[in-house]
Amino acid sequence: MTAAILDTAALGTAEGRAALIAAVAAVVIAAADELTALDQAIGDGDHGANMKRGFAAVAEAAPTLAEKPWPDLLKGVGTTLVMKVGGASGPLYGTLFMELGKHLGTAPDRAALTEAFGRAIEAVKARGKAEPGQKTMLDVLIPAHAALAAGADAATVKAEAFAAADRTVPMLATRGRASFLGERSIGHMDPGSRSSSLIIAALADALSAG
Amino acid sequence: MRVANVGIVIVSHSPKVAEGAADMVRQMVGDSVPLAHTGGDPDGGLGTDLARILEAIEAAWSEAGVVVLVDLGGAETNSEMAIEMLDEDRRGRVVVCNAPVVEGAVIAATEASGGSSLELVKRTAEELYA
């Protein structure tokens, strides 16, 4: 299977872009309870509610955002998350999308997406003062980016994102609220890794559906 | 003309902690230091709200600069993001202070009330950790 990423003609239309935004938002909103449960285990338990609030606002803005070219659309998604999420994941996901917008051209292809995603990850690292291996969203974003850069199809990128989230279970958290628990953070999936994997999976599904 | 004192912003996940810390600052320094506080997420739950952090920085604005005291992760990340969203001429004069939010706010405000520079106010509060 060679389901290409970003080859779907639908993304050339505002309707297609609005559907993509709505699909990603719906996945995050539907996972709110699961994200909350993960965060209650090793954090402050607000990740589900925060992400739901942020992506509900994104979904509401989807028709307007979808009229804009990719850089402005992504900047709008990022700004909305920054203003609405209300936790550290707001600036972190906000930075991810805003930086994607900054580096992705108006007619992105796979190479442009790979390059922009890599730069956006660097910005998330700086924003969170984090590195891979600390049981954070970076532990999903970086492997997913590596799969994309290696030429994987959408289904493989999605599978790698889920597998990477699973690999955070045995990790010791050294960044974020879970780090306060020390060794008790071991044995639980990082909530930010889970939400990152869900977003990547939703994007992969949407981008390979056409 | 008298040089303005450095302003203090308190950002906590809890509106009550933010308000209580601000009360303690006022008790120590009265109205000699510009002071603002904010806490709670956009729905009023525990968390922080970037828009209200921006409003607090505006409310405590001083030409001498503003020190922002934060409690945990999201308060720091949201405050850093807020600072980056300020106009260029203000951005360099607002700093997040790496100190315990209550003690740091009181010490920073006391230092600020004597007319100390932004850098000295920040350093004095951060020495709580040293």
UniProtKB/TrEMBL annotation, chain A:
UniProt cross-references to PROSITE patterns, sorted A to Z: DHAL
Domain DhaL span(s) in chain numbering: 15-205
One Pfam short name: Dak2
Swiss-Prot/TrEMBL keywords: Kinase, Transferase
A GO molecular-function annotation: glycerone kinase activity
InterPro entries recorded: DhaK_L_YcgS, DhaL_dom, DhaL_dom_sf, Dihydroxyacetone_Kinase
PANTHER family: TRIOKINASE/FMN CYCLASE, TRIOKINASE_FMN CYCLASE
Name of the protein in its database record: Dihydroxyacetone kinase subunit L
UniProt organism field: Methylobrevis albus
TrEMBL record, chain B:
A GO molecular-function descriptor: phosphoenolpyruvate-glycerone phosphotransferase activity
Keyword check for Kinase: yes
Domain called PTS EIIA type-4: residue spans: 5-130
Entry-linked Pfam families: EIIA-man
Entry keywords, A to Z: Kinase, Transferase
Annotated EC: 2.7.1.121
Top-level taxon in the UniProt lineage: Bacteria
Listed InterPro entries: DhaM, DhaM_N, PTS_EIIA_man-typ, PTS_EIIA_man-typ_sf
Cytoplasm is among the record's keywords: no
GO biological process, one term: phosphoenolpyruvate-dependent sugar phosphotransferase system
A GO CC term assigned to this protein in UniProt: membrane
Reactions accelerated catalytically: dihydroxyacetone + phosphoenolpyruvate = dihydroxyacetone phosphate + pyruvate
Enzyme class: transferase
PROSITE patterns in alphabetical order: PTS_EIIA_TYPE_4
Record's subunit section: Homodimer. The dihydroxyacetone kinase complex is composed of a homodimer of DhaM, a homodimer of DhaK and the subunit DhaL.
Job description of the protein: Component of the dihydroxyacetone kinase complex, which is responsible for the phosphoenolpyruvate (PEP)-dependent phosphorylation of dihydroxyacetone. DhaM serves as the phosphoryl donor. Is phosphorylated by phosphoenolpyruvate in an EI- and HPr-dependent reaction, and a phosphorelay system on histidine residues finally leads to phosphoryl transfer to DhaL and dihydroxyacetone.
PANTHER family registered for this protein in UniProt: PEP-DEPENDENT DIHYDROXYACETONE KINASE, PHOSPHORYL DONOR SUBUNIT DHAM
Name of this chain's protein: phosphoenolpyruvate--glycerone phosphotransferase
Organism whose genome encodes this protein: Methylobrevis albus
